[in-house]
Amino acid sequence: MRSHPGKAVQWLHEELPSWVKDGIIDDAAAARLRERYPEQLSRKADMVLLAFGILGSAAIGAGLILLVAHNWDDLSRAMRTAISFLPLVISQGLTGYVLARRSESRAWRESTAVFTTLAIGVCIAMISQTYQYQGTPEGFLFTWLLLAVAVPYLLDSAAATVLYLAGLTTWCLFGHDADIAWFWLLAGLIAPYLWRGIGRSSQTSSATVLAYAMIISLTITGYPLAHRGLDGAPIVVYAGLMAAFTLYGSQNRGTGGLPFSRIGGIGSVCLALVLTYEDPWRVHHYLQSVSGVTETHQFAMLAVTQAIALWLLIQSLRKSDMMAALWGALAPLALAGYLASHAEVPTSALQAVFNAYAFALGIFKLLDARRRVNQLGANIGLAILSLLLLARFSDPGVSSLTRGVAFIAVGVAFLIANIYYARLVRARQGDLPCSKS
Amino acid sequence: MFKKLMWPVFGIMVCAQVAVPAWMVVDKELAFVSGKQLRVRCALRDPYDLFRGRYVALRFDIGPIATSNEWNPANAKTRYLSYSVDEKGFLRGEKVLTSPPDGDYIRLGRNVHGAELPCDRFYMNEELAPRADRFLRASRDTVWAAVRLRHGDLVLEEVYVDDVPLARYLEEHPDAGTDATIRPAPPIRK
Hints:
Chain A is mostly helical. Helix content of chain A is 78%, strand content 0%.
């Protein structure tokens, strides 16, 4: 059974009785439509069951971990060892049962997957504590991740994948230079599942959750992976990453691109505003010969993120999607600014460029929102302009009176714009029940 | 195709998930059974491991250590410590080397600050660990760690105070480590 947006199905069920009444369709056709697009109530019940299943498993796993943290001094080593294996053995038995008998139930699969993933960590932690195993948190996490990577594949579990990504992100934050290769190995092991999970059924809740988890993980790990080596390079890497997210999201509107648009858009605006300040440009730029694992890796990240962003930007330009292209322009602008700062171009000029860029983003977003009759888009455009204005007016040299006037102007602009767009939306909506795009 | 691979993958996963902790157990048990027991003087701190509970960080007093001339901190991977046992039966480090010497040795980590022994954490009851820290700052000389050495790997067995396990000592002496006045720990001799 294919999945369909919840709101659309809900609207259909609300409309069907009036269609039958008006003779547009007969009862048999209405029944076929209800069967093809199941009622939201049963789906909601499934979701509630799923949520409680996952929470219950997580609570059990967390409780077991707290038991570990308490230190079991009263038991013998042999007893502690036996108890350490118990959650793992139980979880493996449950996994086998689910695979054999309950594979069609998402609630069973997800909750078992969460329990198994946590049980692996509990077992290793308890053994480490019992036998006074030395080592680092990142070493512990690495072992945990390697042992848990098969769980999402076996049980088709988005929750277990989210746990894996959380663990991978944490491991990366702990990690050191030599672990870069291991990071990509661990990421590569889960990549096929993410590719399949996000791509095959892009509008299901699990696909959305996976997309957000992946994007957030990449965003957080981008800095520890990219900051070792050339000064200032993370700016360019992040610009490429956020631009790529935004462009991909805009090119896949309605087919799972929303998480990419949202995170990419927020990241792009934040980065653009940060680059309007002097500090990010006042780094010691130097282009040494690329050598060593870390510098080569950093260069590769820079090249890959910029290349992907550039390719997506060209796709947007070919489709004449100028708004998306403007978002995507952040990547080449950041690269050009980075190179220009190395060429001793004054930082004030670079700041001016990004002030102009942020301003253009806000203005064009407003105009695009008017064309699409999109009130949310209008608010986003106003928010960008307001943030830019507030950033400039946050200078301590500006008087309180001026700042007060600026804030009031921003507030009034928001109110006027919202009233205008609300009227525009009502004028264009007609009888359609949903208007947001 | 995935359906056909499901059970083999499940089997491999189960084996791997059991084998790794089982090997961890076997490795340490072999050290406890057949490893050479050594005694090391130590001093303690009191940090916390998110995943494995409260532990006491150990610092060891193994005397001044000579560093091998060919050792370069920038390139060092695994290093090795030759040692002897003093007249009181405590381990004394002799020299840090870049290759294993003849006879017994201790395999060190990749750190670059002298000869830090690899077993630097002692997991204990979370209610006793803070008291352990305060107590040992005041009576460091009587504290020592029992370790097992097997094939260069050092395994921490127990921490003793006057030949009594640390946890039991604190339980038998309720006043130990309850003094709110904490004297700064004296520096370890290098």
